[in-house]
Amino acid sequence: MLGTLGAMKLALLRAAYRHPLVAAGLAIVALTGSVTLGVHAFSPEAEPRGSDDLSHDVAGKNPRLLLGRLWLDKMPRRPTDKVDLWIFFGGGIGVHETGSRWDGRYEIFELERRGSEVDITYLQTKKKITTKFEIETCDDVDPFDLCLTLKDMPGGPLRLHGFDYGDDMDRAMPWGRATLDAAKAKTTAPRD
After folding, report:
1. Among the ranges given (22-26, 153-157, 159-163), the one the predictor scored with the smallest mean pLDDT
2. Which CATH class is domain 40-172?
3. pLDDT tens-digit readout, 66-84
4. Where does the chain have alpha helices with state H?
5. From 23's CA, which of 14, 120, 178, 185 has a CA 20 to 30 Å away?
6. Within a 13 Å sphere around the CA of 166, how many CA atoms are in the beta-carbon half?
7. Which residue has the higher pLDDT, 53 or 82?
8. In sequence order, what are the beta bridge partners of 96?
């Protein structure tokens, strides 16, 4: 009989096997056993809302669209494609991953959103970033329909892409939900 952790690892391994474009870190997390379940209280806004599990609002009008979605610089087409992936959870925590399916790294950060500005503090390095952001509808990178611009990032503005609706993400990125779940698992480890 598998415990909760064993069942989670098995589900992640199955997702990695079925979907060749699983985001960087998912297979590594499942195979190395680095997923730990702990105590981290998420606020109600941490859980995506709506029938398709992603909150929806008119883009550009609601900065809460930042929360609970995958934000990528581009769509990975091959397992070796490197991507920049950000996820902001409503419980004041987020994940920044860089790399490919086969090679990558991630950092966990705390966040505080105030309207259309966000403070980011990386837990490992204590590096702090405060940036204004804007979310708008866009179609410049297929298949995405939302764009997030982090305006005051070191090195200049950063433009990321996401989906307005969860079912759009599911069609374009069958591994998207597993990536969100794996990121949430990474953030639930106890923090000292």
Report:
1. 22-26
2. mainly beta
3. 999 999 999 999 889 999 9
4. 4-18, 26-32, 166-172, 176-187
5. 120
6. 16
7. 82
8. 86, 107
